[in-house]
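Inverse folding, one chain.
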């Protein structure tokens, strides 16, 4: 995982990453690693490098707080590689600030920064920045209202009309008149802006299809992936856009290659378990037993998921849904 500090130990027997502030002396190393990886990927002809926005992670897993800034820098060190924002967490951004920063990146990099949005799932991050946490976003539709302002700012450059969470522009006097409209300066050169959003549980698919937002899937098995891709295709047609099955969707896959399946299983086990320790408590690692019965609720945080999941997956009797 790019943006992660080097871990001396990984897997089920490694300690939980709950106290890691003393490791932050090496946090700046992730940026040098990102530059090395980007240069190599550019030389090898890869299309894009995706990174994740996160904050305050003394545990050392994800240490990039600003993807637009990172992508702009890495573009200056490479020739063709694009840089995906996976994702800009909208409850933590003012919509016009996000739109302005992306517009600058689009201009300075010649369109090599890919725009992505997400609602966020770390309460430590989102609420520290004054946004609604993930549960509140789901319950009250905060992401959808915030996205509306963010999308208008990015795509149209003019923000209208006022909404529940933002009044843009504010009703203030300006040079002899009352401000009623505001224009984004500069605007992105490459329009319409390509926008991506993660699909964690399927609740956002209608919004994505309505606004022609592309979807990214990861940490899912074939059953859930198949269902989501069909839903996206059907809902896109509902809003007048015909897409092929799988079009405008990106599937993230983890794999390990070795001489035999068993060797690959043993080789990947500590990394699988380390990932499970981190993501399972947020409800983002779903498994079924050998009879196909799912364990856990997709997208629902479960503080005990790691302990149950690791014991079960020691024999790899569980498989992704």
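Residues assigned per position:
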């Amino acid at each position: 995982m790019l943006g992660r500090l080097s871990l001396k130990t990984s897997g089920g027997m490694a300690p939980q990453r709950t106290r890691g502030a003393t490791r932050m002396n090496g946090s700046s190393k992730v940026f040098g690693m990102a530059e090395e990886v980007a240069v190599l990927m550019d030389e090898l002809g890869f299309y894009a490098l995706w990174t994740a926005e996160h904050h305050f992670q003394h545990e050392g897993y994800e240490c990039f707080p600003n993807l637009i800034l990172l992508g702009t820098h890495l573009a200056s060190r490479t020739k063709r590689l694009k840089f995906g924002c996976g994702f800009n967490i909208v409850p933590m951004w003012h919509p016009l600030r996000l739109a302005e920063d992306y517009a600058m990146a689009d201009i300075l990099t010649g369109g090599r920064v890919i725009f992505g949005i997400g609602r966020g799932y770390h309460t430590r991050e989102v609420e520290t920045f004054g946004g609604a946490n993930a549960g509140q976003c789901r319950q009250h539709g905060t992401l959808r209202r915030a996205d509306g302002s963010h999308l208008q700012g990015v795509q149209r450059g003019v923000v209208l009309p006022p909404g529940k969470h933002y009044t843009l522009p504010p009703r203030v006097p300006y040079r002899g008149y009352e401000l009623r409209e505001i224009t984004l300066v500069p605007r992105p050169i490459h329009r319409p802006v390509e926008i991506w959003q993660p699909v964690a549980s399927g609740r956002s698919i209608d919004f994505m299809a309505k606004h022609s937002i592309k979807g990214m899937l990861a940490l899912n098995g074939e059953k859930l992936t198949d269902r989501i891709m069909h839903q996206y295709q059907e809902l896109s047609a509902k809003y007048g856009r015909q897409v092929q099955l799988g079009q405008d969707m990106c599937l993230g896959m983890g794999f390990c290659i070795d001489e035999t399946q068993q060797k690959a299983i043993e080789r990947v086990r500590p990394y699988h378990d380390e990932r499970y320790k981190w993501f399972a408590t947020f409800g983002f690692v779903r498994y079924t037993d050998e009879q196909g019965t799912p364990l856990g609720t997709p997208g629902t945080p479960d503080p005990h998921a790691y302990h149950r999941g690791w014991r079960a997956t020691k024999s790899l009797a569980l498989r992704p849904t």
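Residues 21-198 form a domain with the TIM Barrel fold (CATH 3.20.20.30). The two ends are 22 Å apart (CA to CA).
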